[in-house]
Amino acid sequence: MNKYQAVIIGFGKAGKTLAVTLAKAGWRVALIEQSNAMYGGTCINIGCIPTKTLVHDAQQHTDFVRAIQRKNEVVNFLRNKNFHNLADMPNIDVIDGQAEFINNHSLRVHRPGRNLEIHGEKIFINTGAPSRGSANSWNYHHAWCI
User: What are the residue boundaries of the FAD/NAD(P)-binding domain, all occurrences included (predicted)?
Assistant: First the structure.
């Protein structure tokens, strides 16, 4: 079983900031992310950054195909940068897989091919959550109804 002082589930803004802070303080840290397409979290991959990139290109009257291509380039660049900012630090292990609690200090990480068991003195859950709209809210699901 791999042993860490801190295990962080989720590679979003809070998780990556906490991982770097603890690693710089000398802690041995594992950062678990279930999808390598989400390194860096929602903002970088499917939220703020892609949206603002597309809005900017729309304001510039950029061709749609080129705008999508540029959005993908920006997102891929930032995702890779976020991954290497953590994975290249000596005290951080980035682990792809889905975490499941075995007990208060142990996790089973389900990975293609083989599972890992990880022990953490401290375990931080940074998985995010879906937004909860109100009865009067409007979202992208409604756009298809217009």
Answer: 4-132
Q: Which residues of the chain have pLDDT under 70?
A: 129-146
Give the helix/strand (H/E) hosting 68. Answer: helix 64-87
Taking every pair of Cα atoms in the chain, the longest distance, rounded to a whole number of angstroms, is 54
Spatial distance between the Cα atoms of 113 and 109, rounded to a whole number of angstroms: 11
Phi/psi for 43 (5° steps) reads -55, -50
Q: What is the mean pLDDT of the chain?
A: 91
Q: What CATH number does the domain containing 78 carry?
A: 3.50.50.60
Q: What is the pTM of this model?
A: 0.83
Domain-embedded: residue 37:
yes
DSSP helix/strand/coil, 90: coil
